[in-house]
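Protocol step 6 of 9: fold each sequence in the batch and record its structure tokens directly after the sequence line. For illustration, a two-sequence batch is reproduced in full.

Sequence one:
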Amino acid sequence: MTRVVLMGPPGAGKGTQAAVVSARLGIPHVSTGDIFRANVAGGTPLGLEAQRYMDAGEYVPDSVTNAMVRDRLAQPDAAAGFLLDGYPRTVAQVDELAAMLAEQGTKLDHVVELTVDTDEVVARLVKRAAEQGRSDDTEDVVRRRQEVYAEQTAPLTRVYAEQGLLVAVDGMGTVDEVTTRVLAALGV
């Protein structure tokens, strides 16, 4: 089993790397962004609530996010492992994830943090917004998301480092270059 968390600021390339690495490892890529967008597109009450926060460049509350992640990790395809992208984002979510996994008699194997230059992240997200028409990727919102990441998510690296799970990986370069570094960090 391989249970991996992939971290990094919005626009660091987590989704791209998660798709490639999860396929290579034969485990599902579990993206909170995908879960949120599916709920928004479906017009669910949780989706409408999530949309409000995403449009403001803020994170969806833990109670909503935790419920979505718990349901996803309970699916049969995640029993043999998973790659989480976009969760956890707070120390409280770190604890919640540990509790979810403990209930299943398991724990995380690896936490990989993609490190990137902030200006490069802004450029990536503005380009992605133009290509995909994403309403949550205006420049002001992108900059706010970077601030929120620094304030709320960066402290997770300390927790995971203390647990001996964290490996920082340079997220700059081509997709293939970064993938090679991520797989090396996972010992693949």
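Sequence two, same batch, same settings:
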Amino acid sequence: MAKEQIIVIGAGAAGLMAARTLSSQYSVTILEAGNTPGGRMCTIQDMDGGYIEAGAEFVHGHLPLTLSLLHEAGLKYYPVEGEMYQVEDGQWTQEEEMDEGWNSLLEKMGDEEQDMPLQAFLDKYYPLPGNAALREHAKAFAQGFDLADTEKAGIKFLYQEWTNESEDNLRIEKGYSALVDFLAKGLDIRTNQCVKHITWQAGNVVVMTASQTFRGSKVIVTVPLPVLQEDAIAFSPAIDTYGEAARVIGWGSVIKIVLKFRYPFWQEKAENIGFILSSEKIPTWWPQLPDDMPALTGWLGGHPALALKDADDDVLLDLSFSSLAAIFNVSADYLREQLTDNHIFNWTAIPHIHGAYSYGTPGFLMAQKVLNTPVSDTVYFAGEALYNGKSPGTVEAAFSSGKAVAEKILSSSNV
């Protein structure tokens, strides 16, 4: 007897996890708009054979599902050590020395009964001119860590994020793509299949791409949030409340830049650099610890990244050099002379993805509840933006959401 057919849209973490969980009892086909599986998990090898993470880079703490998959795949991972430094006007300060006012701000966020955007919270409780430094610290953290628009990001979400942040980051030895290869093994993945239209009725779906038509009994939509926000997939009959719910949830922009140099000149400043935070145009940088690759990764998140969505690589490279020149008190020409390779990943400009990961807004929990409710046990949604737990915006969140949807189908199945 032929197995019941399920269509999964998107071969990122959520889609792969859902398909893998269902594959023993269902015939599962994954439709991926890009030319490779993995989505925002994307590792490339440089000319020297080193691994560079274009997208997701760290395992943010001892996350059970991700680590269990790494163990199952036989993939090694290592702790990322090093100190966090703040650099302002050429002055370097270790993180533990710059907490003045931060803990009280977190306490006030936790005590506030009403959810509100971070900007409104700062204006209410930390008005100018007396709180300029703390306001900038909070806004920079929201933009850099959560990729959030401070006019939209809710303080309840940010409070949970900032108070549950793990101090332990882990790096996968061969990168996230090695895990993608393991998860994709044996699955029916059709690449370069951008879904345009889904016709559905209870127990039956017809999924159309530009070139092919696929049929099944159920469909699991695991596309990045902007695809839903922009109604890029048409549903017949329409399910407008789901698109409306998607537009309530915040979506972050990011530009990631990896610069490889002749030697690790930053070790002359400090040998134990883990992360560098600054107010430069490309504000956040980190080395490749524990790997000794002489490379720095630059990170620009939130609204400033969105503003540079259409910038060409030369502009972004110049901004990187000027930022590092100010941070390390060297000339941009010196940095250009030392550069041996560079990779620029402007995720907001990448078709079918349009950014990095989600963040919570006031009202986002109700939006998640809508998106986590199946349509007639036929149309399902999954992805990191639908996850409600202690690790939002992570690969773990996407894995968890994909697995939860698959288990929901299995628990209600007659297969």
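Proceed to step 7 once all outputs are recorded. Observation for sequence two: The chain has 14 helices and 23 strands.
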